[in-house]
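Changelog-linked ticket: S-adenosylmethionine example.
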Amino acid sequence: MTAMHMLSLGEVLDKLATRFDEADLFYGHGTDNAWDEAVYLVFCALQIPFTADEQIMSRAITAQEQQKVEALATRRLVERLPVAYLVGEAWFAGLPFTVNEQVLIPRSPIAELIQQEFATLLPRTPEHILDLCTGSGCIGIATALTFEDSRVDLADISPQALEVARANVQRHGLESRVRAVQSDLFAALQGPYDLILCNPPYVSQQEVDELPPEYRHEPALGLLSEDDGLAIPLRILREAADLLAPEGVLIMEVGYSREALSARLPGVPLLWLEFAHGGDGVLLLTREQLRDFAQHFV
Ligand SMILES: C[S@@+](CC[C@H](N)C(=O)[O-])C[C@H]1O[C@@H](n2cnc3c(N)ncnc32)[C@H](O)[C@@H]1O
């Protein structure tokens, strides 16, 4: 009897990346190419650290490990499930987060702002921060870790998303400073906040219908907003000033609804932030601006 040929990690990755390439998958939930997607799936499935050195590529993969990878790869290919959901793990601002299909997979360009400690965007170090529409809690948790003395509220309307956010608060040891609150936008919140960060739903039904199959595994509640995607962002612009401290700042992502929002608010000086690592459609307004232009946000 001949011994079964054990593949090396490098061989398993090569084969999987080729299959991903041929299947014409959509990337955008953590990676942007077939090789990185294969690495993401296999390293997480086999609990190999991403920091392992190059020699790891010759590590033998057992039959049992191959079966485990194959089961996940099949779901990626057939069900078009994003890898983050398959392995329950995503990265944001260089930090690991637990995810499941109750939360959007973290990918907001706001990560770059957090990693730069918001550079010159804030008048002073924020003490009380709100992550509105928090999902997995990634934005608020990464910000809490950046500003070590801050207190952070994570708010979401979805109890299932808040369960994931709470798991991530615990994972990062932030229970003493970060709390998760169920709230329909600002309804159950008090403030005043020095900084409100928000990646709300901003996708119209028509755009949702045109998205690749991978997005259908994400909760519609995290994507969909009426009125060409603008209903929720406009509500936030109407209500945020009341919860901001003097000199407080709102930073909100509206992604590709940027053009529609600019067209709807021609007289408002929306400051669109620039990103070195990709992404756009993130605006900044101060409390004073939100007050001054309040009549535009109807
Ligand atoms: C685009 S996801 C963002 C998740 C997370 N902040 C991120 O960047 O990955 C939007 C989130 O808003 C929540 N949401 C939708 N409508 C809401 C509302 N009226 N009030 C509060 N949260 C809401 C959804 O449950 C979802 O978790």
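Closing comment: Example verified and attached. The mean pLDDT is 96. The first strand starts at residue 89 and ends at 92.
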